Amino acid sequence: MNMRNMLKSLFVFGILFLSFSSQLFAQQANNLLDERILKRRLDQLRATKDEALLPIYNDSFKAEFLNFLDNKVAFDYPFNSLTTVGKITSSDGQIRIFSWNVQLNPDENIYNCIILKKKKRKGEHDIYDLKDNSMMLPMFPEETLDENNWYGALYYDIVEVTKGRKTYYTLLGYDLNNSFSHMKLLDVLYFNGRKLNLGYPMFETEDGSIAKRVFLEHSKKATMTLRYDDRRAKIVFDHLSPESPSMKDFREYYVPDMSYDAYKFIEDTWVLESDVIATNSEESKKMKISRYDPEKDTVVEVEIRKKWNSPDGGNTPVQNGTHEAKTVPKEEYEGNGESKTSAKEQKVEKEKTRKEEEFGGVQYGNLGKKKKKRRRK
C-alpha cells in the first residue's frame, strides 16, 4: 500500500470514528436529558399534596419512565437522580426491578412496579408494567398472578434459585397496608417463555403445607426484619407474636418477640426453620444485612451488632415451646447503679439498631408530618 492509499484509509477511519463518537456522545447527552425530564416529573409528583393530582402526576412520570426504559441502555443505566424509586438487580444480571409508591392517604397507596428481563439478543430486554389490582384481590392472594393482576408492593431484594433448568427469583417485599398494620412478604417471580408469573409453590408453612407466597402482617408501630443472610444462605426474619394472648386473632397487634425464624432453600423448597438464633451457638457479634443506601442510591451490605439470645437465659423469648412478645425487664435499665450503660444510652443504641435493621427499600409519603402546635405561655 502506497502512502497515498494509506493516508486515504486513515482519513476514512478517522471520519468513521468521529461519526461513531459523535453518535455515542449524542446518545449519552439524550439519556442525561431524558433523566432530567424524569427527575422533574418525579419531583412534581413528590411535591404535591393534592390527592386529586397525585394519580395524574404518577401516570405522567410512569409514561415518561416507560418511554425511557424502551432504550437499549436502560437496563444498565443507573438512574441516580431518581432517589425515591427503588432499584434492584438480580445477581445473575438478568432481572431489574423498579418499584415506588404514591401515598394517597394513611390507608391507601398506589404501588408501581416495572420489571426488565434481558433477552438472549444482546442489548435487548422485555418490559413488564405490573398493574395494581389489589381492590379486586383478596388481602392475601394465594393464586399465581401475572403482570395485569398484581397485589401491589415495594420490592427491596431479590434472590435467585434454580429448580431443574429453570431459574426462580425470590422477591422480598413490603406493603404499607393501612393505619394499623404493615406487611413484609415473600414471593416468587418466574417466566414461562416471555410470560411473567408471580407465585410458585415453594414456601413451607408452619402447618407443613407449601405456599406460593408468604405474607407477614404486623403492627404498624413495630419494625420487622426480613432479609437475606448471604453468609448463611437463609432468609431470616423476626418471629411475630401477639402483644397479649387475647389479641392472637388480630394481626395488627403482632410484634417481633426477639426470636428469629428462617427459610433455607433445600431440594427445590424454601424450608422453614424455627428459632434459628435462639437455639444456635453464639457466633460472631456482628452480622451483615442488605439495606438501602440513599447516598449511593442502591442496596449495600452493612455490618450491625448481633444480639444473641441464649436458650438457657431467663429472658429468652422461647420458653416451654411457646413464643411470647418480650419487653426489656425494668431492672436492666433502672437498676441500682450496677448497669454499665444508662437508660438513655440504651435507648439511643436501641434506636440506632432499629434504624439499621428496618426496611431496606425506598418508600415515600406525600402527606408530610403534622406540625406540633406551640403551647401558649
Q: Can you characterise this structure?
A:
The protein has a domain at 85-334. It is 21% helix and 34% strand. It is built from four helices and 19 strands. It has helices spanning 3-47, 54-69, 330-333, 343-357; strands at residues 86-89, 95-105, 108-118, 125-130, 154-163, 166-175, 181-192, 195-198, 203-204, 210-211, 214-219, 226-229, 234-242, 254-266, 269-273, 286-293, 298-305, 318-319, 322-323. Strands 5, 6, 7, 8 and 11 form a five-stranded antiparallel beta sheet that branches. Strands 1-2-3-4 form a four-stranded antiparallel beta sheet, with helices on one face. Strands 12-13-14-15 form a four-stranded antiparallel beta sheet, with no helix packed on it. Strand 3 (108-118) and strand 4 (125-130) form a beta hairpin. The longest helix is centred in the N-terminal third of the chain and has 45 residues, at 3-47. The radius of gyration is 25 Å and the shape is globular. This is Outer membrane lipoprotein-sorting protein. Residues 323-333, 341-358 have a biased composition (Basic and acidic residues). Residues 306-377 are annotated as: Disordered. It comes from Lishizhenia tianjinensis.
